[in-house]
Amino acid sequence: MSKNINIGVIFGGRSVEHEVSVITGYQAIEALDRQRYEVTPIYLARDNVWYIGRELKDISFFRRDHPPLNRLTRVFPSPDAARGRLKLVESSPSALRKRRIFEIDLAVPATHGTFGEDGCLQGLLEFAGVPYTGSNLHASAIGMDKLLTKAVLHAQGLPYLPYAAVVGVEYEDDPAAVINGIESRLEYPLIVKPARLGSSVGVRTVGSRSDLEDALEFALRFGAVALVETYVEGGMEINCAVLDGDPPIPSVLEQPVKSEKLLTFDEKYRGDRKAGKGSKGVKGSKGMASLQRIIPAPLEPEMTRTIQDYAVQVFTATSAGGVARIDFLINSKSEIFVNEINNIPGSFAYYLWEYMGRSFSELLDQMIERAVQVRKRNHKTIFSFEANLLAG
Predict the structure, then answer these.
(1) 151 and 174 assigned to the same domain
(2) Residues 248 and 196 in one domain
(3) Does the model's pTM come out above 0.85?
(4) Could you tell me the end-to-end alpha-carbon distance of the chain, in angstroms, rounded to an integer?
(5) Is 200 exposed, middle or buried (0-12, 13-18, 19+ CB in 10 A)?
(6) 3-state helix, strand, coil in the chain (%, to 5)
(7) 267 has pLDDT over 60
């Protein structure tokens, strides 16, 4: 990797996980090795307008109710793939000079949720021909859509919880019929969540028909499809990150500690508890690193290896890249279920790798090196050929 490569860390975006993404972005910005990289923070506002600027060098810019975006330079990404760099074109140049163009050699998406983790941003980067860390367009779309993830798990023979999908328009037409169908297949208690969202947003546990109605109406406010699953009473949540490689490498396991039945958004991102070995914050904002957790998870060695094997299988089956975190549930019978995959996990799950002796900077180095390898491999792929169909 050549020195002074320009790394663009992209964060924010039009998502309910906007602020979480800002924290993850700044964690990466602080961890990137300045001896190897020039770092350009790229902020996507809540309306997906792109900004760069010196003010973005410090997260304190966002520690106010209304960050002064007028102090930043508004830009738009160019789809020109001729040079293999992401071009950011100044939107409103001064009348006294030409429109400025800024170029990024490689992108690090730190965007959680919709329009950033679901393949939308990855598709733009693919179109622009710029290398980027993390999962590609297809893997990102699969990971964000819990129903697609279930389909992949089913095809691979991996264990998952019984579930029912609820389409919003069908529920609006006949809610009683939809709920009857759920109750005929699943037993209470149940867990209801948006099918294409993360960070515990819109998630509720229900124990009755009336609770189910309320939870479905709430979950469907966050998307067109909701997912209803069997709730694992007294279950243990276990997480395992996987780092892309030949072969992919599983991390140490963690057990998040929750104060309620469900791990809430506040517990994940606003906690101020001890974060385990290697906790790293951004001037008080620790993101996923603020969550109380047990590392390594208190499991027998055989179960630990089984979960790590499952994690690698999920990572491979979904064609994930970079670092992804796979979440599991274990019930009272010691049965293991794959819950979901997070293609851009909060804080890039760096705390799991630090426990294993790999620093956050080293983790980012490997993600960047892998992105360059993937780019070189993709250059060998044939996307078009001359057929002379238009020849006279």
Answers:
(1) no
(2) no
(3) yes
(4) 47
(5) middle
(6) 35, 25, 40
(7) no
